[in-house]
Amino acid sequence: MSENAHRGVLVLNLGSATLKAARYDGSSLSPDREPQALQRIEIALVKPGLDPGTESQALLIRAIESLGLRRAPEWVGHRMVHGGDAERARLLDEAEIERLDRLSAFAPLHQPAALRLVRAVSKLWPHTRQYADFDTLWHARLPANTRRLAVPGAWHELGIRRYGFHGLAYASAMRQVRRLSPPIDTQNAVLAHLGSGCSLCAVRDGHSLDTTMASTPLDGLPMATRSGSLDPGALLHLLRTGRFDLDTLESSLYHQCGLLGMSGLSGDVRELLASDSDGAALALDIFALRVAQGIASMATRLGGIDHLIFSGGIGAHASAVRAAVAAYLAWLGIDLDESANARGDARIDGPASRARIWRVDVDEESEIASACATAIEPYET
Fold first, then answer.
1. Element (H, E) at 153
2. Which homologous superfamily is 182-359 in?
3. Which residue spans of the chain are classified as CATH 3.30.420.40?
4. Could you tell me the sign of the dihedral formed by the alpha carbons of 300, 303, 309, 312, in that order?
5. pLDDT per residue as tens digits for the range 206-233
6. CATH architecture of the domain covering 3-161+365-380
7. Which one, 2, 96, 114, 288, has least CB within 10 Å?
8. Is 135 a catalytic residue?
9. How far apart are the C-alpha atoms of 20 and 201, rounded to whole Å?
10. What secondary structure letter does DSSP report for 212?
11. CB atoms near residue 65 (< 10 Å)
């Protein structure tokens, strides 16, 4: 790695509800070991997913001031939700930014805001290189019978296929469990990333085999404010009523559905768990049921589960939700240790469980730092 790598590195992880930022010593970045952040922060977004360019600039300034950055970093690494067919992290030159901009229609809640942040960095530090790691990379080698959706070939060529998302979280979850149980790399695992966005992933021999999200991060499980999978005929009906145009329907699917829509109260599981309303109880029950059904589907794809891994704001921190999901999966041999689950231990399966069950806090920023550092080499030789 070049001498410049010994200067600081900044990683920006813009999600749907927060900006997480971390700084690293560039000389410590290596694909052979997990990066250790020197400092990290998390900033809640005032208008999640909707910040205009001027607010992106202010958000960046707030992040670097909070991290105490005194000068431009050697390079900046970004999380990008949709990388299309990319199979590695990439340099964010103009051609790559244009390519990612064309993919924004598949991730309107995330991609445009992340690209605005890239442009804010360019404005502040015009000579600093920027790189992107992609949530879709983890699923880059999905088998054909998972990748292909039930649509005509012409649609497939237009990008209507299964890409999968949450790849950075999945990579981090696997890395953490691997330290505790190395055989996981030769076993079957179902990863349940449950937060503002939610998805499941079936992993065999350390590689993604199936996942619940398809072309967009709107698909699959119900989420905090996103609908998850819906009958496409119902969406056509809503359009035909004349009460929705494309923009209002898209906004509603991303911001007014999911736990918020079902409960009529909130998309925040903490608020729903604290509520005694029937709507909150029903929303939580539906959520747990859909997650359990999805896990059973992933188990079918794998032919069994050796490991079940919970992560994300809900998966890692809501013991009651984990318990509710496990209760629906008792027939599959999933059994929680109630005390370990309540304490939030790393391993939370009971003695009768046929699968090991884990609870992890993922570190997406370190995954970004590692992947982008590896991607730098071709551009510096």
1. helix 153-157
2. ATPase, nucleotide binding domain (3.30.420.40)
3. 3-161+365-380, 182-359
4. negative
5. 999 999 999 999 999 999 999 999 999 9
6. 2-Layer Sandwich (3.30)
7. 2
8. yes
9. 23
10. S
11. 10
